[in-house]
Specification:
15 helices; globular; alpha+beta; 450 residues; 18 strands; single chain
Amino acid sequence: MLKKVKLTGRIVTPKDPDYEQARTNNNLNDPKFPSIIVFCQNTKDVIHALRWARENNEPFRIRSERHNYENYSLLNEGLVIDVSEMNDITINQKDMTARIEAGANLGKVYRVLWENGFTIPAGTEGSVGVVGLTLGGGIGMLSRPFGLTCDNLLELEIVVASGHEGAEVIQADKQRNSDLFWASCGGGGGNFGIVTALTFKLHPISNVSIFSITWEWEDFERAFDAWQKWAPYTDERLTSQIELKSKEVGEIVAQGEFIGTASELKKLLRPIRKTGSPTNIWIKEVPYIKAVEFFDLPSGNKPAFRKRSGSFIERPFPHAAIVQMKEFLSNAPNRDTSIWQQSLRGEVSQIASSRTAYYYRNALIAQEYITSWKKPKEEEKNIQWVENLRRALSPFTTGDYVNFPDRFIKDWPTAYYGRNLRMLREVKGKYDPFNVFHFPQSIPPNKKWL
């Protein structure tokens, strides 16, 4: 008879003084209390944890940097397999590639790559894990020139379930386990196995130019309309975002990053610089790492009560949709409520929707509905505001980005994956036929593999 496996790594239970810190995610809403958290130190610890969970019939979840908006990386009772302490980065200068362990956060990734003159296109918040971001697609301030984070992925190391109680490590790339590699490029985290390392192609980077333009509330409709008709179509070296803040704050702020000089950027910005009456405009050329620091907002890295959801925009918003946004932000549940949007297309749209699991290649804009609050009793009105806004804008939008998960979306599989859902279910059925990796919005397996 086979000897049962033991958990290895740094183990935290409710009896330990650091349990509270160990169980707390970035979203304090809907807290969870696992019975064991194992902080894996290497791939062997991950294999042991998965085998232990299967042998003991213990429910489990996978976690890297604690940023899942619906806290699907946590559970009550059960085991959390946390890879955040596996964060080594190895750069191959000659091949211009980097092998990044799954626990590395974007702050570390950007810093280490920058020290070697490179980067990858990824998100903006420094405490977000590179693994979850990549598996969902990965949008950020270099999406238009370099594509999504997953478009720059070359290989994965992943621990999958084997047999009835086993676990094994396999590699996936365009040659080996290519269907699993396809699914891991936008098919969301936690569906097929536990990713332990990712290999990316790197981009040389030195200086970039960044900008910020602020308008007051009176310019809401004009500023947004000008931005949406410009941002997805301008020079693809320029990626930008706009944040429509609550009426209480009364600001509309457009910002962005351009691989080029400040004087070139100034010319490209003319259509929005000349719109309305901006109260503040600045444009500057900076070392790339300074741009990374500029877009990394500290509040996003601190745990708080949060609710977020999102969608994609495939055609510019008509006036009626812009008025809806303004109306909702006039009646926001608190001042820290906003609608955030980022320009897409460019390199993102050069890949067919079926070529990776990330489906929304033709979207002009990704948008996110954001609120956070201070006291638990304020939860209901904040969640309701996001839900009502999403419904109100749904005639003008499509789907949702899997990295903005929302438990209130009824047909979430189609919302996240569009027509790629059928293939994702096939991959799930092949690599995880017993549905070992499951959570409230995990991909259901295709039954033919059972």
